[in-house]
Design a protein that fits this description.
The structure holds 2 protein chains of 2 kinds. By secondary structure, chain A is α+β, with helices and mostly antiparallel strands. Chain A has 9 helices and 14 strands. In chain A, the strands form 4 sheets. In chain A, strands 9-8-7-6-10 form a 5-stranded antiparallel β-sheet. In chain A, strand 8 and strand 9 form a beta hairpin. In chain B, strand 7 and strand 8 form a beta hairpin. The chains are: A alpha+beta, B alpha+beta.
């Protein structure tokens, strides 16, 4: 593994990919080539200038004319058009590396959950092509999904056609309300899919878990113009000033299991016993906290505030009651 | 950058061009004395040790990109590495002519790259897209309406991926679900698999001389590569690992009762073995401890009916949570 920044490698991949493109697109404008590769026009110019003075040592070992790429400099400098007048050594796109092919193949495996990708044969043929285009067998990385997410189909249809959707939504606290939403995008986070959109009930952008929706109905009403101007933040859920602060004690080894609740770099202090640390974390509501703590029984304890401790204890006792188990203390 | 210094990408690009252009290969001395980026620093009959180290690193960087840089050993001079010859056979370098992609396929591949937002999978899938762009296919951008994401937040992921590529035995401390103390494991890592939303590494456990699969989230502390290499088994290790996880999943069945219209209902019903309007469901699970963790998180929303060991494990967890959050002893 190289310890050097990837930048030079990425630039090399760019140069090796650009040459065959320029051979196939004689006279392409700097602007069009830059757009094709998603770089700035200045980056494209720099790359073309570098290619134009590169080549092979040749018989003399002196990089003589004829051993180098060449371009029509007048067209390039005056009209912003790229014409390769001479090329050496390479003329085809490079193969994928084993890791590059694997990254795309594993991504495709995840996308097999989309209703559009119900045709498994098409995915299989695309995967086979990527493998054939790699210089060695794709490295072993795989993503396995349970199957197609059926609810995505009507929602995607509504996103694409810019029409409102209605559904019943049960929130994290268990309350169900009827919602009317201008759908903007379908986001996923591993196994969970979310609809993000303008919520007419709350008059704000909201994120809805697909598995908490029921009775999804796509309307014929166009979305409100204002929703077209919304920019979605990168994160699905933002911490807000209304978030609650709780102090937890965690087995050190279990810290990574808390994931997004304790982002990397969160300050911790020693706990009450060996291997234990204390940290402060923010939660939207105790409904999420009690589930988290019950999932990590014995590894996470809420220390404060008291109502957070009570919410967790009540949750566990309510669970025990379902098994006919009594606990010494009643509900607080 | 020193005056007259050649940028790294120019040196790497020149090296690729020179090695593609040669049929018989070039020796290291020929490369260092003639290729742009090396030749100005080459000392005839002098000490070129630092330039040679540079060349070794450059070879690795170029191979990382999937460029098939070959080393040819002269049969008569085995062991004399000054006479090794290097080349890039053009046939193995070029993307095969039948590997082309329709605009629909390209759109899908763009979205596949978007699935990764961090780490090596993200940078590599974007580099693959760069190579696709050289084919000149119209790119409509990712499929509108979707923003898929698979997380790679476990610190163990990159070192394991690197060890898998280099067939290196690794050691790490592992906190097995249901246990309180981590144990150091020594394994041959074979494949990384996201299954049921969790990253696993499929391995051959050296101490147990048997296949073992580990959860990345339970690897505590660093993954340390050893100097020992191993020969991976033939075939598609990733597919085999998925198959094995699916097989184990199918062997464990729990009968549970869910509270209607609860989170437990909607999430566990999707995993139910048979569609049912009933509140009693049958679901598969991979690991009894992890399943007990998950079911305990639902509190009163779910009751385990069978098997009794799983039922007891959930009750045990709930008792523990109730006890540690009751009273002021903290």
């Amino acid at each position: 593994m190289s310890a050097r920044p990837l930048q030079a490698q990425d630039k090399l991949a760019f140069l090796l990919s650009l040459v065959p493109y320029l051979i196939d697109h004689d006279g392409v404008s700097v602007a069009a080539a830059a757009a094709q590769f998603g770089v700035s026009e200045q980056e494209m110019r720099t790359a073309v200038e570098l290619i134009a003075v590169s080549g092979i040592p040749g018989g003399s070992g002196q990089y003589q004319h004829g051993d180098l790429f060449d371009i029509d400099w007048d067209e390039f400098e005056e009209n912003g058009r790229i014409i390769l007048t001479h090329s050496v050594a390479i003329d085809e796109a490079p193969r994928f590396s084993a890791r590059e092919a694997a990254a795309l193949i594993a991504g495709l495996q995840y996308l097999s959950a989309l209703p559009e990708n119900g045709d498994r044969a098409a995915l299989a043929s695309l995967t086979a092509k990527l493998a054939r285009g790699a210089s060695s067998a794709p490295s072993p990385v795989a993503v396995s999904v349970r199957g197609i997410e059926d609810a995505l189909a009507p929602l995607r249809d509504a996103v694409v056609r810019h029409v409102q959707v209605e559904f019943d939504y049960r929130d994290a606290q268990g309350e169900t309300e009827h919602r009317t939403v201008d759908p903007l995008r379908l986001d996923s986070d591993d196994e969970s899919w979310y609809l993000r959109g303008w919520d007419h009930l709350r008059e704000a952008v909201r994120t809805f878990r697909l598995d908490r929706m029921s009775g999804i109905a796509v309307s014929d009403r166009a979305v409100t113009p204002a929703s077209g101007e919304v920019t979605l933040p990168d994160v699905l859920f933002e911490t807000s000033s209304t978030d609650l602060t709780v102090v937890v004690e965690v087995a050190e080894a279990a810290l990574p299991l808390l994931g997004d609740y304790l982002p990397e770099g969160t300050r911790t202090q020693p706990g009450r016993g060996p291997g234990l640390v204390q940290a402060t974390m923010r939660v939207g509501h105790y409904a999420g906290l009690k589930r988290l703590v019950a999932r990590l029984a014995g590894m996470v304890t809420v220390l404060a505030p008291d109502d957070a401790r009570a919410a967790v204890a009540d949750w566990a006792r309510a669970g025990l009651a379902e098994y006919g188990e009594s606990t010494e203390e009643g509900s607080l | 950058m020193a005056a007259g210094a050649v940028p790294v990408e120019e040196r790497l690009f020149s090296l690729v061009l020179a090695l593609v252009a040669t049929d018989h290969g070039l020796t290291k001395a020929e490369i260092l004395s003639s290729v742009q980026g090396y030749r100005h620093r080459y000392v005839v009959r002098g000490d070129n040790a630092s330039l040679e180290r540079q060349f070794e690193r450059d070879k690795d960087d170029i191979r990382d990109l999937g460029v098939p840089l070959e080393t040819i050993e002269q049969a008569t001079e085995a062991g004399n590495n000054q006479n090794l010859r290097y080349r890039i056979p053009k046939g193995a370098y070029d993307l095969p002519p039948d590997v082309t992609f329709t605009p629909e396929e390209t759109t899908l591949l763009n979205l596949a790259a978007e699935v990764w937002r961090e780490g090596s999978l993200s940078s590599e899938s974007h580099r693959a897209l760069l190579k696709l762009r050289s084919l000149g296919i119209e790119v409509d951008g990712p499929m509108i309406g979707y923003a898929p994401r698979v997380r790679v937040r476990e610190a163990a992921f990159e070192p394991l991926r690197s060890a898998i590529d280099r067939n290196l035995v690794v050691t790490f401390a592992y906190l097995k679900p249901g246990e309180r103390a981590a144990v150091v494991r020594t394994v041959e890592p074979l494949a990384l698999v996201k299954h049921e939303g969790r990253w696993h590494v499929a391995t051959l456990d050296r101490d147990r001389a048997a296949p073992r699969t580990f959860l990345l989230s339970r690897i505590v502390g660093p993954v340390t590569p050893t100097r020992t290499t191993f020969s991976p088994p033939e075939g598609d290790s990733a597919a085999a690992a998925v198959q094995e996880l699916d097989r184990v999943l199918a062997t464990n069945v729990a009968r549970i009762r869910v509270r209607p219209d609860s989170d437990a209902d909607s999430r566990l019903r999707r995993q139910a073995l048979e569609p049912s309007a009933d509140t009693d469901l049958r679901v598969n699970y991979l690991d009894a401890n992890l399943m007990a963790d998950e079911l305990a998180s639902y509190g009163p929303e779910v009751v385990v009916l069978e098997p009794s060991a799983l039922r007891a494990a959930v009750i045990d967890r709930l008792r523990q949570v109730a006890a540690s959050h009751t009273g002021t002893d903290r």
